[in-house]
Every structure is written in structure tokens, then in C-alpha cells.
From TrEMBL:
Family statement drawn from the similarity comment of this UniProt entry: Belongs to the DapA family.
Taxonomy of the source species: Eukaryota, Fungi, Dikarya, Ascomycota, Pezizomycotina
Name assigned to this protein: Dihydrodipicolinate synthase
Positions contributing to pyruvate binding: V227
PANTHER family reported in the protein's UniProt record: DIHYDRODIPICOLINATE SYNTHASE (PTHR12128), DIHYDRODIPICOLINATE SYNTHASE-RELATED (PTHR12128:SF47)
Catalytic residue positions: Y155, K184
Length: 330
């Protein structure tokens, strides 16, 4: 029996398909670790020239919970200036607007819009997880989407929301909202992705994987891309998996996916390892000192043994990454 397709109209503005980097925050080597906007400008431009299809700021990898409201706006303004200076002023920039209250999330959405973001990424509330019923979830996203000047991408990541996990029925309900355009499934549930893509076209509600280690399966299942911390380290190779798949070169895409998946294992362990790897593999190339890639206190950089392990695991992708040319932006 065929699955009944949704009859909701296409959304007015959709998040463009592809691979997005949830950009890390870079800090000055001071006791208070002020945001290093110059370094973030340079990193932003490098990611764009490396073929990333869009960038996400103030997500989990961006340490959003550790940033002030004014810092978040400054980072977004810097990113928009960086892409404009590259000659791509309409490049998609997604801003995390996750707050524990509806009011806070709406405030962050308005801040992000004023700072130049083009889409908003929103986690569910989780301060009192036992009180987060389906009614609360649907009400929260509906209220924020009603008020947000930016289209909303639902961010489902139970690992950072005390286990709060939107199921496919919840997401199907939210998909009907005219200002909710996509979901990022960092839950890693490909079955959930299939259930959603079987009912909604990408023009109605787009499905993105939450990491690059299952990008190929996500695309095969009808998804349109992923948001991956790996992009901070190897942006060219992660984008190329998608590009090869779109070009119909599926065997090449699958082969590269295997290497990417093995390299991403280090990113799964901790954000500190992702940031260290970005500093190790990209820091010198960007002219950014290693301390800029340390987590913000109270969190600490990884110990030497963890660093050595990370270089060994992620190094399998270094040769492939260095062989890929930068993208022409013309």
C-alpha cells in the first residue's frame, strides 16, 4: 500500500540543500577568552571557499550556551560580512536560537535576523524534561515559528536536551507550519528520516542528517544534506560526498563516505576533540594560533593522549582533503 503523501503547500523559503558546517567559536588567548572575530572571519571565508553549501552558527559546536547574546550577534554580523566580502552576499547562514523559554527563543530569532542570519535552528526546551510533553513541544515550536522573522529548522539532538526526542509524528505535525522548513536529525535515526521523506517532498519539509558519517544513507533515503562538525576540520571532503552524489557518481560518493565516516569517529567523542582537530589540521593554514581552538572555560582542551588518538583517527582523510581544489564562487 503506498504511503499517503502530504498535501501541504511548498514553503515560501527553503533552506538550500547540501552540507552545512556548525561553525566552532574561536577565542582570544586571554583569561576571559573573548571572541576572536578576526579569526572567525578568516575561518568563515575558508569554509565557503572549501565548498560548504551553508554555515550554522551558535549550535552545539558553536558552544552557544557559553556565549552572551551580544557575542552571538557579533559573530553573525562577522559571518555575513565575510561572505559578502567574498561576493556571495546571499550565502545561507543559519543561526541557533535555542532558549529554554519561548520568549528567549523569539528574542534570539529577532537578534539573529537583525544580525544578518537567513534561517534559525531551534532545539526543544529541556530544563524540566519530564514536563516536555508532545503538547509542550508542538506549542513551543508553533509559538516561536509564528513570531520568528526567520524560517525555522527543527534541531533534534536528545544528547544535549536531557533525552527530549521529537519523534516522526511530532515532526510531521510541525512540518505543516508555514514557517518551519526543515529538520536536522542529530539523533542519527535514519528510520525517522525515511518516514518523513516518504510523506513530504523537500519543497514541503526538508530532512538533514546531523553528521556526515551517514550523509550517503540520508541522501539515498530522500534527505537533502547534513549539518556536520567535521566541516570545521575537513570541509572540502565532507562537501564532496554530497557533490558526487548529486552528480550521479554514487560509487565515488560511497567510497569517500567510508573514509569520512571513519574520520568523524573522533568528532563523536567530544567537541574538544573536534576543536583540537580543526586547530591541528587547519590552524596553521588559517594563521590562527592553537589556543583559539580551545573550548571556553570551564571546559578544557583534550589531554595529549586524546590528541594523538584524534590525529591518528582523523588523519585518514587528510590526503583526500588536501587534493581537493577550492570552489570557484563566480
Amino acid at each position: 500500500m503506498p504511503i499517503t503523501k502530504s498535501s501541504i503547500p511548498p514553503k515560501k523559503t527553503m533552506l538550500p540543500p547540501g552540507v552545512y558546517t556548525p561553525v566552532i567559536s574561536l577565542y582570544k588567548p586571554s583569561k576571559t577568552q573573548e571572541i576572536d572575530l578576526e579569526a572567525m572571519y578568516t575561518h568563515c571565508q575558508y569554509l565557503v571557499k572549501s565548498g560548504q553549501h551553508g554555515l550554522v552558527y551558535q549550535g552545539t559546536n558553536g558552544e552557544a550556551i557559553l556565549l552572551s547574546r551580544s557575542e552571538k550577534s557579533s559573530i553573525l554580523q562577522t559571518a555575513r560580512r565575510a561572505v559578502t566580502d567574498l561576493g556571495v552576499p546571499d550565502y545561507p547562514i543559519v543561526a541557533g536560537i535555542s532558549g529554554q523559554s519561548t520568549n528567549e527563543s523569539i528574542e534570539l530569532a529577532n537578534d539573529a535576523y537583525q544580525a544578518g542570519a537567513s534561517f534559525a535552528l531551534l532545539l526543544p526546551p529541556s530544563f524540566w524534561p519530564k514536563a516536555v510533553t508532545e503538547e509542550v513541544l508542538v506549542g513551543f515550536y508553533t509559538d516561536v515559528a509564528d513570531a520568528s522573522p526567520l524560517p525555522i529548522v527543527v534541531y533534534n539532538f536528545p544528547g544535549v536536551t536531557a533525552g527530549v526526542d521529537l519523534n516522526s509524528d511530532d515532526l510531521a505535525t510541525l512540518a505543516a507550519h508555514p514557517n518551519i522548513v526543515a529538520v536536522k536529525l542529530t539523533c542519527g535515526n535514519v528510520g525517522k528520516a525515511v518516514r518523513l521523506t516518504s510523506r513530504f517532498s523537500p519543497e514541503q519539509f526538508s530532512v538533514y542528517g546531523g553528521s556526515s558519517d551517514f550523509l550517503f544513507p540520508t541522501l539515498e533515503a530522500g534527505g537533502v544534506g547534513c549539518v556536520t562538525g567535521m566541516g570545521n576540520v575537513f570541509p572540502k571532503a565532507t562537501a564532496k560526498v554530497y557533490d558526487l552524489w548529486v552528480e550521479g557518481k554514487k560509487e565515488e560518493a560511497r567510497a569517500l563516505q567510508e573514509v569520512v565516516a571513519n574520520a568523524e569517529w573522533a568528532c563523536k567523542k567530544s567537541l574538544a576533540l573536534t576543536k583540537f582537530a580543526a586547530g591541528h589540521f587547519l590552524g596553521e593554514k588559517l594563521g590562527v594560533r592553537p589556543e583559539a581552538f580551545w573550548p571556553r572555560r570551564p571546559y578544557l582542551p583534550p589531554a595529549e593522549k586524546q590528541r594523538e588518538w584524534t590525529v591518528g583517527v582523523m588523519g585518514v582523510l587528510e590526503e583526500e582533503e588536501n587534493a581537493i581544489a577550492e570552489k570557484s564562487l563566480k
